[in-house]
Amino acid sequence: MDNNISRVNIIQINLQHAKASSTLLAADLARLHTPLALIQEPYVHNGKVLGLEQASNSDLIYDSNHNRPRVCIAIDKTLVFHVLPQFTNQDLVAVKVKFSHLAVDFYGVVVSLYLPFEHNDPVSDSLKLLIDYCSDHNLPLFIGCDANAHNTVWGSTNTNSRGIKLLEFIVANNLLLLNNGDDPTFVTTQRSEVIDLSIVSQRAARYVSNWCVSPEESLSDHRRIHFEISNPTIVLEEFRNPRKVDYLSFNIELCKSLDQLDSFTKDLQPSTPHLDNLASNLQSSLHSALAASCPLSKPKSNKLSKSWWSKELSKLKTECRTALRRAKRLPVDHSQCVERWCFYREKRREYKKAINDAKAVSWQNFCTDTNSLSATAKLHKLLCKDGTNKLTWLKNPNGEKSQSPAETLSILLDEHFAHSTNLSSCNDILSPTMSSTCENAVLSNADLSLIDSLVTHEKIYVSLNSFSPFKSPGMDEIFPVVIQKSLYLIIDILQYLYYHCLRLAHIPEPWRHIKVIFIPKAGKRSYHDAKSFRPISLSSYFLKGLERLIDWHIRSDCLVKQPINCSQHAYLTSKSTDTALNNLVTKVEKARLKNLHVLCCFIDIQGAFDHTSPLVVRRALQRHGVSTPITQWIYNMLKCRFIHSQLSDQSSIRKVNSGCPQGGVISPILWNLVVNELLEILISTGIWAQGYADDIVVCTIGREIQTASELMQNALSKIENWCHRVGLTVNPNKAELLLFTNKRKYSFSPIKLFQTCVPLCSNVKYLGVHIDNKLSWRFHVESKINKCSGLLLQCKRVVGSKWGVHPKYLIWIYNAIIKPIFLHGVIVWWKFAQSENNQKYISRLNRLASLTLSNCFFTTSTAALERLLDITPLHILMQSTAASTCYRLMVNNLWESKHVQGHNEIYQFLTSFIPQVLMPSDSIPRCLSFGMTNVKFVIPDREQWLEQRVDTNYDVNIFTDGSRNDLGVGAGVFISSKNDFPFKKDVEDFQCLGNTVTVFQAEITAISNALLLVDHLEGFNVAFYVDSQSVILTLKSNIHTSKTALSCRIQLASFSHRNNVTVIWVPGHSGIFGNEQADLLANTGSAHDFYGPEPALPISTSIIKQGIKEWINDSKELYWRNIKYANHTKTFIKELNINFDAPLICFERSMIRNILAVITGHGPFKVHLQKLKLAEETDCPKCGQDSDTSLHYITTCHYYREARKRTFGLTVLKGATKPSCINVSDLVRFIRVSGRFDQGC
C-alpha cells in the first residue's frame, strides 16, 4: 500500500469520560472518513479506553500502563505512524505521522494533551521536552489540548493565572494558536467558555486550514474542533487477488511464455547462473500470465457500516442541535433561558437514548442473523479479539525505549537474527558464495539415483498440492493456488530445477529472498520485549515444495534406518503433547510408588530455531545418514538467505547465515536432529530426559533428595557443555525445578544453571498443563475452568432473553472451541474428577454453558440441564477423552501397559469395557505412498450414470461391494469381460468377514479380492466400479492411516504397472447390473458362516470410537438414575413417558427456556414461585382447582382442555386417558397453542 497522505481531517474533542459521546465520535470518524482524532478525557474502564470500538479502522494510542489515561489518539490504520513513548504519559500522547504535501513527503508530530486544572503550572516537563525534540528534528508539531486555562487572547471571557502562564509559554516557544473568534468550546447551562486549544509550531502552521468549532452535537459539554492538513489524496496500492484469476486465460498466457523457456531445460549440465536465470524467468512468466488474466483490485477501505443509524436519529440530531442554538441565543438573565436549556437537555437525553437503543437493536439483529458455523466461528473470533496494538516500542539491550520504527525493527532483527549482515538496499545483494566444490563435484550413481527418486512428477505434484491454496506468499508474491493451477504446464521445468539444484547443492537466487513478519506470542503480559514476538519466514513456494520432498525423504528413509531418540515428541508422526505429558507423569508416578524422590527441571533453549549454526545442522544430518547432496543443499540453504522485513514505513534487508527459518517446511525436523544429540548424551549417562521442540525436561530420581539434586546438577552441567559446543544458550531465568516427595520437611541444596540458581516451584506449567508437586491437579483445573468461563462470558454478549445467536451455534462454540481447551492433556489428570466433590466443582462449567444456551431459571439443577440439553457431564467426558487418547497411544506402541496405577488406570478401564482394543488394530502411523501414476480415478455425476453417459468400454469390468447386516459383514466381486476375453464367463466371488469389520473395510477387501482374481492379467484395460466415494478418495490419496487401505493401494499400484487401470464411482442401488450383482454377492457373504478366529481384519478405529460412545451413553444414563435430586424432572419424564424425538437445542432459545421450565418445574408456576418467596398462594390462577405445577398445567388444568385437544387429541392426560408417550415436538406445540408463556404467567 502506498501510504503517502496529502490531506488529513482532524477532530479534537474532550469526551468527559462519557460512553455516549465516545460512541457518537466513533461513528462520525467513519462517516466523515476522519483519520485522526485528538481526544481528551475518553471513556475508560479497567484501564482501557472504550466506547470507540465502532471506529474499526483506527488504532487507539494511549498510555496503557496507567489505570486512568486522560488522553488518547484515534489514528487510521492506513496512515504510517510511530508512537513516541518517551513523551507519552497519562496526560500526553505523541505520535509521529508521515504526510505527503503535494509531491513532498514530510513527517509531523500530532499530540493529544490534557493540562490538569489542579496544577498551578499548566505546562508539564514532558511537553517542554517534546517541543525541544520537534525543534531539534525539524518536525512540524500539531497539538490538540484541553488547557483548563482562561485568556481573552483565545476567546475566553476572562484571564486567570494559568492562562497567563500558558500564553507566555506559547510565545516563548514560537508556537501559534489556531483558535480564532470567540466560539465557545465548552458550553453548559451556567456558562460558555473557550478552554480547548489547537496549538501548532510555525513549521506546521502552513499546512493547516479550515479550523473551526463545530456546531454539531457531541453529547459532551465540550464542542468538537475541526481542522485540516491540506490536499487529500490517499493512494491505495492495487493488487491481484488470486481468488479472482481467470485460470483458463492464465494458462493460455502462461503457455506462450513457457515456449521461450524450453531451451533452458535442454542443458543437461547447467551451471548455477543458468538455474538462477531459469527460476527468475519462470517467476516472471507466472507474473506476466497473472497480469493478463487477473484484474487489479484495490484494498477495501474497511469503512464502518453504521447499520444502526436511521432517519429518525438524523431527525433527533437536528432537533437537538436546533434546541442548543435556540438556548445559546438568549442571555442568561432572559426569562425563557432556563426553559430553553431544559428543553435542550431533554432533547439531548432523548437523542442519547435513541442512539443506545438503535445500537442495541442492531447488535441483537446481527447476532440473531448468525446462521452458519463459519459465521459463528467469525463471531467467536470477534468476541475474543484483542485490539491492542502490541508492536509499538521495544526495549533495547540497555533497557531504553526505541525512539523510531527503524530502531524497533533493528531491535527485532538483532534479537532473532543475531549473526545477520545489514544491507542498505537490494543493490547491495551480491550473488552469494556457495560451496565451489559442489558445482564441479562428481556425485556417485547412488546419489544421482536418490535425486532421481526424490523429484518424480508424482512427488512434485503431491508436494506442491499439500499447501493451502491461499496461504501467504513469499517475496515473489506467488500464491500456492497459482502454482497448483499451472502445475501440469510447469512440472517439467520444476523437475529440471529441483534435480539440478540438488545435484549442485544450489538454491536459485530468487528463492533465497524471504519475507519475515513478526507475530506476537500468545499470552504475554508485555509486548515491549523483542522475545515476545516470533519471526515467521515466508519463502517462495517453489522452495517450500523442494523442502517438502527433502523432509519426506529424511523422515521416511533416513530416520527409519537411524531413528531419532524416542524421547522426542514434537513434529513427529503419532506423537504430541499427550505423549510427552504421559511419559513424564508415568515416570513420576512409578517412582513415587517406590517411595523415591523425583526432581524435574524444565528448561527452554533460547532462540533454538533462530540461532542454530548451519555447521551444527550439517553434523546432525551426517550423524543420521542423510546423503551428501541433500546435506550440502540444506547447509547452503541455511548459510545464505536474504530476509526482508518492514515495520511502518521502515524496511530492512539482511543477509542471514545461521538459524532454521521459523515457517520453513524442513526446519522442525532439522531442530529435532540437532537436539537429539543432547538427549542422547543425557540418556546415555542414565539421566531421564525428553524434549518437545525447544522445551526440555530432565528428571533425576534418588532415595534421598540430595542424591537427586546431585544428579540434576550433573545433568545441567552436561546441558551447559552441549550448549557451549553448539553455540546455543538456555535462559536460566525461565528454568524451573519441581520436586516430588512425600516428605513435609527437607533441606534442598541450590542448583545452578549458567551460574544462576534455578528456583524450586510448587507447580510448573509444561506444555499447557500445570503440574503440581503432589499431582493433585487442583491448580490446573481451576485455571482451565477460569479460562473457559471467561470465554463463555464472552458468549453472553451475543445472547439476550429474546434475541441472539441460535443455541445450536452456541453449543458448537462450546463443543468445538471451549471444551478442547478444558480437556487439553486430560490423559494425565482425568482422575481428578473421580471424586464426587470434584465432579460438582467442574460441573459449574457445564452449568454456565447451559444457562447461556437456555436462559432458564437459575434454580434449575445442573444434572437436569445436562440431561435435557444432551450435554455430557464433564467427568464422563474427561474419562472418555482420556480413553480415546490411551487407545491412540496404544496403537502407536506409545503406551506402557505394565504400569496400571495413577493416570494409567485408564488402560485397565479401557481394556475391561472394550476388549477389542487388545486385538490387532487397523490404524497405523500416518505414512506416504506413491506409485499410482498409472491409475485413473473418475467420479462421474449420478445423472451421467442414469443417462448412460459413462464410458464402460473396457476389456475387463470389475464391480465390488461390501455389506453389513445383523448376520455379519461380507465382500462381493462381480467380473465381466469384453467379448468373453480374457474370461469366458462372468466371475462371481464373495467372502464372509465376521462381525468385527466395518463396511469401509469390506469395500476395500472386495477390491483386494478382485485384484487377486485378475492378478495374472497383463496389457488389458481394466475398470473397477466402486459405489463408495470415500474408498475411492482413500485409494487416490497419498497419505494413509489404515493398514487395509494401504495394502490394497499397494496391490492396485502393482497391478497398474502391467495394465491400464481406471477406478470409477458407481451409484449404489440404482439398477446398474454389475453393481447389483456385487451387492447381492456381498449380502450372500454377510449371511454366510464365518470360519476361523475373529477378527478377520485388524480392528478399525471406528469400532473403538463406537464402543466409547456407547460407554458414554450408558454412563450418562447411570449417572442420571443415581443422582439424588432433580426429582421433578425424573417424575415428569417417567409419568408422561417423554420421547425426545427432537433435540432441545434445535429450538429457539425462548422455547428452550419454556420447555425446561415445564419439564423441570423451575418456571413461572405458583408452587415454584412460592419456594422462591415470589408468590403467596399455590393455587392455579386459571382453574383454581389444584396446585399450580407444570404437571398440572400439562395434564389436568381445565383452562387448557382445548389446547390439549388440539395438540394430543385428549382433554386430560391422566390415568386411562394418558397417551403411551409424549413427543417433545408435541410438547412444544402445546406450549405454543396454550399461550401461557406468551402471557408471562
Short description:
The chain is α+β, with helices and mostly antiparallel strands. The chain contains 40 helices and 43 strands.
Task: Give the SSE layout.
Blueprint: E1 8-14, H1 19-31, E2 36-40, E3 44-45, E4 48-49, E5 58-61, E6 71-76, E7 81-83, E8 92-101, E9 104-114, H2 125-136, E10 141-146, H3 161-172, E11 175-177, E12 186-187, E13 192-193, E14 196-201, H4 202-205, E15 208-213, E16 225-229, E17 239-240, H5 247-258, H6 272-293, E18 296-297, H7 311-329, H8 337-368, H9 373-383, H10 405-416, E19 421-423, H11 436-440, H12 445-454, H13 457-465, H14 480-504, E20 513-520, E21 533-538, H15 541-561, H16 577-593, E22 597-606, H17 608-611, H18 614-623, H19 628-639, E23 641-647, E24 650-656, H20 667-684, E25 688-692, E26 695-702, H21 705-726, E27 729-730, E28 736-740, E29 752-753, E30 756-757, E31 760-761, E32 763-766, E33 769-772, H22 778-795, H23 807-823, H24 826-829, H25 836-854, H26 862-869, H27 874-891, H28 905-913, E34 923-928, E35 935-938, H29 942-946, E36 956-965, E37 968-977, E38 987-992, H30 999-1013, E39 1021-1026, H31 1029-1036, E40 1039-1042, H32 1043-1056, E41 1060-1065, H33 1073-1087, H34 1101-1122, H35 1127-1136, E42 1138-1139, H36 1149-1160, H37 1166-1171, H38 1190-1195, ...
Parallel strand pairs: 1-2, 9-10, 20-23, 28-31, 35-41, 36-39, 39-41, 42-43
Antiparallel strand pairs: 1-16, 2-6, 3-4, 5-6, 7-8, 8-9, 10-14, 11-14, 12-13, 15-16, 17-18, 19-24, 20-21, 22-26, 22-27, 22-28, 23-24, 25-26, 29-30, 32-33, 34-40, 36-37, 37-38
Helix pairs in contact: 5-6, 5-14, 6-14, 7-8, 9-23, 13-14, 13-15, 18-19, 18-20, 22-23, 22-25, 23-25, 25-26, 27-28, 27-34, 30-32, 31-32, 39-40
